[in-house]
Amino acid sequence: MNCIIIEDQLPAQRILKRYIEDIGTLNLVGTFSNALQALDTINSQKIDLLFLDIHLPKLSGIDFLKTLPNSPYVILTTAFSDYALESYEFNVVDYLLKPFSFERFVKAVSKVTTLTNAAPPAKSEEKHNLDLFIKSGYEHIRISLTDIFYIKSDADYTEIHLSDKKHLSSERLKNWEEKLGNQRFLRVHKSFLVNTDKIVKLVGNQIHLNDDTTIPIGRAYKEVLSQKYLQ
């Protein structure tokens, strides 16, 4: 795979170059200290993978991704664990927190290899419809929207329930509703946001999902559900 580095710190550049050389499956096309310098290379050559620092001079890594209509796969690098990640809108595969080990680097690159072997990169609009990152401790975990059954509000955090596990998020349920409201997710209770693709049936004031979970229907939300499903 052809890759480039966009990183303004020389020590971080050296580490990435050494890791790329050691892994043996990547061809480093160029190294740049700011995002604007890399534009010509991205536009003129086939670049499969971009190692991108978030905090860059002139233009941040995230803002740079917003300028690319169809970006390569991206592995973000940053020294700030509490950065408000917006990367689910783009082809971001992993998020490396500096300083990161060679083993962690290999794990990130392996994710790209798996995606490359499975299918070509999707356009940013398609990725937005399928994936998002959630913050869990010091990590940002990529999950598919199609794997979410429901999101539950619990005190000061929310629980994101998948078929076999759940993740905790510090975002409020209202934030998830605003973010996913046009992605087939529906608020059905003050404490629940449900993936409507997982609904099997409505019985009284309850929703039954296809994993045998039962979700209550709030009085204020029942009319919306009735209009959507019972006509």
Tell me the layout of helices and strands.
Layout: E1 2-6, H1 10-23, E2 27-32, H2 35-44, E3 49-53, H3 61-66, E4 73-78, E5 92-97, H4 102-118, H5 124-130, E6 131-136, E7 139-144, E8 150-154, E9 157-161, E10 166-169, H6 173-180, E11 185-189, E12 192-195, E13 199-203, E14 206-209, E15 214-216, H7 222-229
Parallel strand pairs: 1-2, 1-3, 3-4, 4-5
Antiparallel strand pairs: 6-7, 8-9, 8-12, 9-10, 11-12, 13-14, 14-15
Write down the secondary-structure element order: EHEHEHEEHHEEEEEHEEEEEH
At CATH level 2, the architecture of the largest domain is: 3-Layer(aba) Sandwich
Total number of distinct structural domains: 2
**Integer average pLDDT:** 82
Full CATH superfamily name of the largest domain: Response regulator
Output the structural class: alpha/beta
Q: Tally of extended strands?
A: 15
Biggest sheet statistics: 5 strands, parallel
Termini separation (Å)? 52 Å
Instruction: Give Rg in angstroms.
Output: 20 Å
